[in-house]
Amino acid sequence: MTRQEAFDILDQAVTATAAESVVATLGGSSLLSCRLADNVATQCVRRADASLSISCAYGQSHGSAVTNRLSPEGIATAARRAAEAARLAPPDTEFMPPLPAREASQYADIEAWSDATARRDPTEIAAELEEAVGVVAAAGCRLSGAWSGRGTFHACANSNGLRAYHRATEAAFRATVLTEGSSGWAQETATAAGDVVPARVAREALRIARDARAPTEMAPGRYTVILSPAAVAEMLPWHLVCDAKATAEGRTFLRGKLGTMVCAPSVSVRSDPTDPRCPASPFVGGGLAAAPVHWVRNGVLENLWRSRYWAAKTGTEPSRGPTNLILDGGSASLEDLVASTERGILVTRFWYIRFVDPMTCLLTGMTRDGLFLVENGRITRPLRHMRFNERVLTALSNVEALGQPQRIGGSLVPALKIREFTFSSTTTF
Amino acid sequence: MKDICLDAIAAAHGRGVTYADARAVCIRTQGLHTEDERVSSLADTESVGIGIRVLLDGAWGFAATSDLSREAVTATARQALAIAGANRALRRPEGVAWCPEPAHREVFRTPMATDPFTVPLETKLDLLLRVNGAVLAVGGVRKCHSHMQFERRHRFLANTDGSVIETETVTSTARYTATAVNEEGAKTRTFEATGATRGYEHIEGTPLLEEAPRVGAEAVEQLSAKPCPVGEMDLILNPSHLALTMHESIGHATELDRVLGMEESLAGSSFATIDQLGSLVYGSPLMTITCDNTLPGGLATLGFDDDGVPGQRWDLIRSGILVDYQTDRETCRAIGASRSHGSCRADSWASVPIIRQSNFGLAPGSVSLTPDELVADTERGILIDGMGSFSIDQKRQNFQFGGDCFWEIRNGRIAGMLKDVTYQALTTRFWGALDAVCDKRFWQSVGVMNCGKGDPGQTARMSHSSAPCRFRGIRVGGAR
Fold first, then answer.
1. Which of A188, A211, A405, B404 could form a Cys-Cys staple with A329, CB 3.0–4.6 A?
2. Which of residues 258-297 of B touch A (CB under 8 A)?
């Protein structure tokens, strides 16, 4: 949806009721995806949708309605439902009025759109996937995975005259290659579809799968680990963005830690929507201008996420993020990290990570798609997969080296070498 | 919407098309969220659209749109055909063994006493805020979050079999969490009217307010509870807890698409391969698992699945032996079945239908056994209630679970509360350790509201039932 089309709908929403204040947001996407299993296409999808959210308020009482019926009647119905809910709701002591129109002057100009991605044709994708399947099938292996190309937009308007619009594309291919008794995995994500090459991804997953054949069991315990960027993205940085109010109430693992050293000095975690390596939206909820923010700088916890309400209550500024998550890295390659390790375990990726104890940020999860023993700077043998139980702050305090950052979805993270990482059990493969 | 579906089928049905379906869905939800004495969110959500699926020369195509005009629906049908056509080179060489199904022309509606959308918002908010007040009245409790959610899902499905099916299902749930805080940390305790395809009577029939003082007190008690011991212990698991363990270690492992490798790239596969059908010892002889998509109130009780197959009841595991799978029309012939079990569902009009877990349950014990008698018969163990941390490998073998609240059992008596309990096992080892199941008087269904699967990701709902059970000699305390 174009900027003007989005604003036309939002204007109808904002003016549809007699509510004292209105915030309307409109977001949508157009998706083309193709999923593979065992070298064949199994689910190929094209879909488009857009959803309008209208939040009405009378004083501090508010209610909202969401609809994807964007006709004048659909908009009017949603607005009426939102207004009715607002009239019935008791006053909310944490309600914040809509932002002023001048907030829009702070929006950064961020280019995150590729026409080539948005206009991708199913036949182009099928040809690229056929090539990727050919690479894997020629090796007698099986390729599963998914190609996806997505164009998204989101827009916002309110009864103070604020208007915001942003659009972005993302292309990605994730590949799992299976041999008899092993698997390997790789992915690429980019704004432009041409920067994602399925055959290249398939070759990398194939290499890992072959190296992972005939794994042997390793006793659970504490080991130095080298986490690939995908493993880091799955496990680490997002947990460091905690809500300031919940933290002040003693309900998060970061309570009492603001301004203190929580990670190794080499660790800095931040958001920056303008970083061209993983661009993000120039505004966040309700139209608040996004801006670069450090969550952890040189190991010190510098920021918690502050809502507009909590910022006003505590006399601080609201958080202008998170938009993306960036863990700053170094210049070492994954191979350099392996070469510098006397004895350790190389992790391709993690799977099914969950909190065990949110109050200490103790996480558990499994390794997946390639686990390797490193001895004297070389990969010496594949291992059966293991379950870890580890605290995020412990892991990030034990960082010994950082690799080059790589885009994984909405994150930009490096490989990490971490000492004394806790594995508690093994599985059967 | 029925006519729109028929138009879509007409547009999608052409040369080389062996099957097509069109599914028009309108989903309306109402969500109420509170925090302490304030209403943090009141939201009404509506999503309408149509998804069209075609099987053209052995290749699948799917396209979906929220524009229900005749022109847009016809264009969407053509998109589905174009996608299928583009993927001919990547189709399965042997083709899709699509299983026949008779044409159905039926209407199914969730039976209910009170439509939750007709209950005034004030009534619902009043109950939530009174619950919060009762929880916060307990000394040591610092926070209470509560919410209710209701959904009405109106679906028309038409396919080239000649089926025209209309369903209208209503789901109701309510839940609250008390948080106690002291200098050392914070602990939570949750109570819920577990998700069910029932009306507002489901909320009214659950003692949400009556249980609030106990729930708050148990959150506070956890703060000073003893930590989880380390070693092997007997576990007594309540239905509110076992539902999730069954879901992860049985439900996902017996979805036939996973077993056949069709979910390998994301959710993973299964150790329960089809060469072991009829011989795999999944658990102890006490373990009989029955799927039932006709279960009154079950979250997967929808009349028909999205392949147009009616809800059914069948055994998955009988006396500890794997005897069947959860199937759809694409996969069931791989195990020699002549009909799908009807386990194929999409989470919205915009999603491709895939195999999703059915309602299923562990059969209750055949001899009289109460939970108190089970505790009295246990020398050293842990009683676990409610859901907590959960994680399992991609073949559904190595798992680790937590819970919501835990009590130590010593010499047949409850000996106080424990905290931070986790247990670890391999699936068949765990189910092989099942040695007692309480009888049918204590058999309960628990709704799972947010099961994730698929790529693009989808969520699904289903119910899992059991009575309290005991598992002997399970490793606890491995997560530190």
1. A405
2. 261-266, 268, 271
- pLDDT reported for residue B480: 77
Whole-number percent of chain A with pLDDT over 70: 100
CA distance A99 to chain B (A): 19
Is residue A237 over pLDDT 80?
no
Taking the C-alpha atoms of residue B78 and residue B90, their distance in angstroms, rounded to an integer, is: 19
* Whole-angstrom distance, CA of residue B314 vs CA of residue B310: 13
Distance between CA atoms of residues B328 and B357, nearest Å: 11
Residues of A in contact with B43 (CB under 8 A): 63-66, 85
Write out the DSSP string of A255-296. TT-TTSB-S-TT--EEE-TT-TTS---SEEGGGEEP--EEEE
Whether pLDDT at B15 is above 90: no
To the nearest whole Å, the CA of B321 is away from the closest chain A CA by 20
Quick one: pLDDT at residue B291?
A: 98
Write the pLDDT tens digit of every residue in B345-365: 999 999 999 999 999 999 999
Query: Both tokens of residue B70?
Result: 């005749």
How high does pLDDT run on average in chain A? 96
Q: Do residues B182 and B309 both lie within one domain?
A: no
* Closest of A150, A129, A153, A144 to residue A177, by C-alpha: A144
Give the predicted TM-score (pTM) of the model.
Answer: 0.96
Same domain? For B209 and B296 the reply is: no
Tell me the nearest-neighbour CA distance from A164 into chain B, angstroms. 22
- Asked if B456 is an interface residue toward chain A (Cβ–Cβ < 8 A), one would say yes
Residue B149: both structure tokens together = 């959610």
Enumerate the residues of chain A whose CB falls inside 8 A of the CB of residue B186. 250-251, 359
For B95, the closest chain A residue by CA position comes to A40
Residue ending a domain, among B197, B224, B251, is B224
Q: What's residue A236's pLDDT?
A: 81
By Cβ distance, the residue of B181, B261, B402 closest to A251 is: B181
Query: Do both B325 and B373 map to the same domain?
Result: yes
Q: Are residues B203 and B254 in the same domain?
A: no
- Total structural domains within chain B: 2
Backbone angles phi, psi at B378, to 5 degrees: -115, 120
Q: Can you give the pLDDT at residue A15?
A: 96
**pLDDT of B26 over the 90 cut:** yes
User: Could you tell me how far CA B11 lies from the centroid of its own chain?
Assistant: 35
Question: Do both B218 and B234 map to the same domain?
Answer: no
CB contact under 8 A, B38 and A94: yes
Determine the structural domain holding residue B383 and report its residue range.
227-476
Q: What is the pLDDT of residue A410?
A: 86
* Domain-ending residue, one of B184, B200, B224: B224
Q: Among partner residues B89, B121, B479, which is closest to A85 by beta-carbon distance? A: B121
- Sign of the dihedral through C-alpha B464, B466, B468, B471: negative
Return the residue matching tokens 């026409």. Answer: A115
Coil, helix or strand at residue B351: coil
Domain A3-208 has CATH 3.30.1360.130: no
Looking at the structure, tell me whether residues B329 and B196 fall in a common domain: no
Please, which pLDDT band fits residue A251 given cuts at 50, 70 and 90?
Answer: very high
Mean pLDDT of B30-55: 96
- Alpha carbons A139 and A180: distance in angstroms, whole number: 12
